[in-house]
Amino acid sequence: MTPAVLLSGVVKEFGATRALDQLDLTVRGGEVHGFLGPNGAGKTTTIRILLGLLRRDGGEAAVLGADPWRDTVMLHRRLSYVPGEVSLWPNLTGGEVIDLLGTLRGGLDRARRSALLERFQLDPSKKCRAYSKGNRQKVALVAALASDVELYLLDEPSSGLDPLMELVFQEVIRELRTEGRTVLLSSHILAEVEALCDRVTIIRAGRAVETGTFDALRHLTRTTVVVETSDPIHGLSELPGVHDLSSNETRAQFSVDAADLNRILEHLIEFDVRSLTSSPPTLEELFMRHYEGETATSDRPAALASAR
Amino acid sequence: MNTLRGTIALTALALRRDRFKLAAYIFGPAALTAGMLALWRGERHELIVDEVHSFATTPAMRLFGVASGASVGGVFMIRGYLLLAVLAALMSTFMIIRHTRQNEELGRAELVGAAVVGRHAGLAAATIVAIASNLTLAATLALIGIANGLPTTGSLMAGLAVGAFGIVFAALAAVTAQLSSTTRGASGLAAAVLGVAFAISGLGNMLGHADAGGQRLVSAWPVWLSPLSWGQQMRPFGGNNPWPIGLFATAAVLLLATAGFLATRRDVGRGILADRRGHAEAAPSLLSPLGLLMRLQRAALLGWAAGLLGFGLIFGAVIKQVPTGATAEWYTRMGGSDEIMDAYRASMLAMAGMTAALYAVQVMLRLRAEEADGRLEPILATAISRQRWLLSHILNAGLGALLLLLVFATSMGLTAGLVLDDVAGELRTLLAGALVQLPGTMVMIGLVIAADALLPRLASVVSWTAVTAFILLGPLFGAATFRLPQWAQDVSPFTHIPKVPAAEFAVIPMASLVALASALAVAGLVAFRRRNLTLPV
């Protein structure tokens, strides 16, 4: 089966700045794929290339097997899009915008439209200028989700939604997956990605630094271990693979590289283990690992703060 | 005065934000004034007498200027006052609305209002800046008059007549900014009042009569209802009547008091007039790019059409009075024929043609606004190609311009036909002549497309500069008013439009203009297909 999205070595430059630097991205058909990175990492640029709004300067791109720059119109009948920054025509109503965008895409499902309006509690007869940011976001969401298409490209779709609406949004995305549709979900809200996505790609400065299922990603990283023993623990800090150790006599907390876990357990048994908890790394820890060390030197702190 | 707290800081902020705009607003009218005075200063006295006489005695021409005696200053008031006053009114309106309603609409006022700032501070700061700029404008214009050797009292009166009208419109905009909840709505209301003021002034002047010497217009009573006439009735350089300044001052004070009162009656971000609800579902006519554009442009098109309808009715009604003398010579130069009636028809049609082209430029530049403001992105993410989007814009602008021309020709044909007792003949002549104007509009449409595709960030500046230059070099100003050399007139596409019915219809210039328009449009279509969109970050 051809992947829904396949980017390899994609380069995009704006003047002297290189927004995408040899980006690789594969979204398989039928999966919800998380696209993670702080603001400015290149998420929106990537999606705009997938839509044929921007022209790539290098590399290969295929969306549903077609070239997004050449076959734009044909492709757009098969996908729908929620932009990151939603601006609407102030003197049209939300309902009119939904119908307009749906029809221009090639049709929208009336039943889905009214069901979504109901679930998102959106009043479609208000003029767009009168909507709050969250309601403008809902207009864009309903317009995109009411279309019966194969691929949904969502650029930070839940920004501005309140927690209740965020739950509705997650429900809708799960239903799409059940129906076998493909979703590319760009986000910097880690909990949302963790709750929804089958696989995830982490992007940093225009490059994919990590991609795979959570489980696979976790294997590459450290597990946090908290252990209590009867006898005082010693010698832990000399073992290879142990990091961030804090201990007092019979209690120790540390993180450990997956490859060294076995040897360390053998070492701990000597001290008569009474309790042991190990927790896999959270997505947040994964994410932070790739952005660590940058905060001091670059312009990332604001991005990181918002990524939390 | 707690509600005025923070006014000084906000005034400084407004001045800082507007420093380049203000300079341009003062410099533009000043340059215009200096240019006109330079043009008329060396003119023979007989020519000035002729000019003033025709404005005093021709009803249609009284629409544009009030004659108050033959002098260089008098001609300047006739030719320049209306333009300067409208510029001052627009500048004041935009200035007030930018610092009040727009701040609220964009949420800046909320940020400022949360600080130690009184309810009226924003409005007061905007008013202070607007009054100060209008007084500066008045002083500048007076100085230019004095420097060009015009009488001192007249120069001061002329400057004040412009500045005071600007101040009244600043006060009016302060009211409309309270009424409407949007920038567009507030500017639209103020512009509508300006249109009504122009119509009332025009009516009052057309109903008036020339005095015994034929050099001075005695206006009819309706002029006192329109602030636009108050400045004219001050009669700078022709009697210097100061007391309309009292009318200006009273109107400004009343309007500002109303604005201040209304500001206490509403929530921040809201207007006194309630936002109307709309349709929960789209009408089928909206559901295409062309349908969307027509809907977005509907109000503007209606406004332009109403204006052209009015002018058409008036220009047709006065066709019998098209005089001999200086005006006749002007029509002949512009219309390019000695047959005075046909020259008149041709010049009116040329004027309507250029108006349609201005409309087309305004509408086409929505192309730019939609892209830069991010509304194009969701459209092009649907199954709409870039070519179809551009073609929809072309069709929308072209159909709108065509409608405007037909409205003008029909209304002028009706009244002219009634006056001359040949409605069918007038309609036929004028409608045919109106269609001949279309290639001028087509060239402008092509030019905007090419500019938008090739130089997106400069598209607006390039397009407005081009259309202004073409109009100034064209038959209306370049040939008739400024008498420019032929090569300069030839730069303008409007020069090449056959002056039907005064001249024979000619295929070659028409075909050349259409070919030029198509070449520009095709270049634009190709370039737009190939370029990155300039999207908001």
How would you describe this protein?
The complex is a heterodimer of chains A (308) and B (537). Chain A contains eleven helices and 13 strands. Chain A is of the alpha/beta class. Chain A folds into two domains: 5-217, P-loop containing nucleotide triphosphate hydrolases (Rossmann fold), CATH 3.40.50; 222-280, 2-Layer Sandwich (Alpha-Beta Plaits), CATH 3.30.70. In chain A, strands 5-6-7-3-8-9 form a six-stranded mixed sheet, sandwiched between helices. Chain A is elongated. Chain B has 537 residues and is mostly helical. Chain B is globular, with a radius of gyration of 24 Å. The mean pLDDT of chain B is 90. Chain A binds chain B through residues 44, 48, 51-55, 72-74, 76-77, 80-81, 83, 85-93, 95-96, 98-101, 103-106, 124-127, 129-130, 140, 143, and chain B through 105, 181-182, 184, 275-282, 286-289, 292, 295-296, 373-375, 377-385, 530-533, 535-537.
What is Rg of chain A?
Answer: 23 Å
In CATH, what is the class of the largest domain in chain A? Answer: Alpha Beta
Strand line-up of the largest beta sheet of chain A: 5-6-7-3-8-9
Query: What's the number of extended β-strand segments of chain B?
Result: 2
Could you describe the largest sheet of chain A, including whether it forms a barrel?
Answer: 6 strands, mixed
Number of helical stretches of at least 4 residues of chain B: 24
Kindly report the oligomeric state of this protein.
heterodimer
Q: What is the CA-based Rg of chain B, rounded?
A: 24 Å
What's the total number of strands of chain A?
Answer: 13
